[in-house]
Amino acid sequence: MKILIETERLLLREITFDDKEALFKLHSDPAVQKYTGEPVVKSVEEIEEMIEKRIIDYKKYGFGRWATLLKSGKQFVGWAGLAYLPEFDEIDLGYRFMPEYWGLGIATEASRAILNYGFDSLKLGKIVAIAMNENKASMRVMEKVGMEFDKFAPYELGSEDALWYWCDKKLITKNKRH
Asked: How confident is the model at residue 109 (pLDDT cuts 50, 70, 90)?
């Protein structure tokens, strides 16, 4: 499988059906799903449907959520990447990691690399990131990578307001210098 993004500690590649057990472990963990607005996954079949959607996104948009592995040992730690949100006509930076890897700077490292990839390789104009108000750790990641708060707005119809952050290449470059 081709590595799309490589950082100091991480490798990011397309998600495949070989990842289904690791993804099931990730998405069936209530702590992981707590601030996502999504229910805990109950079956591997649900994960297989999710993987099928990821593969369609890769083909349709040229990007998606990517399996994130530690370079040392190729250990699956979660996923991070971009997703087109047609209901908002926005491209979203997102990530989800196994709890044992929280607090190690992995989300920040992956997010920086994904933003650079999005602007430099994919030539995207703008990227957003969305977090529930209670998800302070995710907000810190967005701020560390140079994104700025945009607005409070629902993420899904009928949901409570979430925090929306945004950035473009110019903003990221400016924030790197400060």
From this structure: very high
CA–CA separation, 5 vs 21, rounded Å?
Answer: 23
Residue type, 97: F
* pTM of structure: 0.93
Read off the tokens for 171: 């903003």
Q: What is the dihedral of CA 62, 64, 70, 72, to 10 degrees?
A: -20
Residue 171 CA, chain-centre distance (Å), reads 19
In order of 5, 163, 174, the CA distances from 104 in angstroms are 19, 23, 25
Would you say residue 161 has pLDDT above 70?
yes
10-14 and 3-6 as β-strands: parallel, antiparallel, unpaired? antiparallel
DSSP-assigned letters across all residues of the chain: --EEEE-SSEEEEE--GGGHHHHHHHHT-HHHHTTTSSPPP--HHHHHHHHHHHHHHHHHHS--EEEEEETGGG-EEEEEEEEEETTTTEEEEEEEE-GGGTTSSHHHHHHHHHHHIIIIIS--S-EEEEEETT-HHHHHHHHHTT-EEEEEEESSTTPPEEEEEEE-HHHHHHHHH-
Written as one letter, the residue type at 24 is F
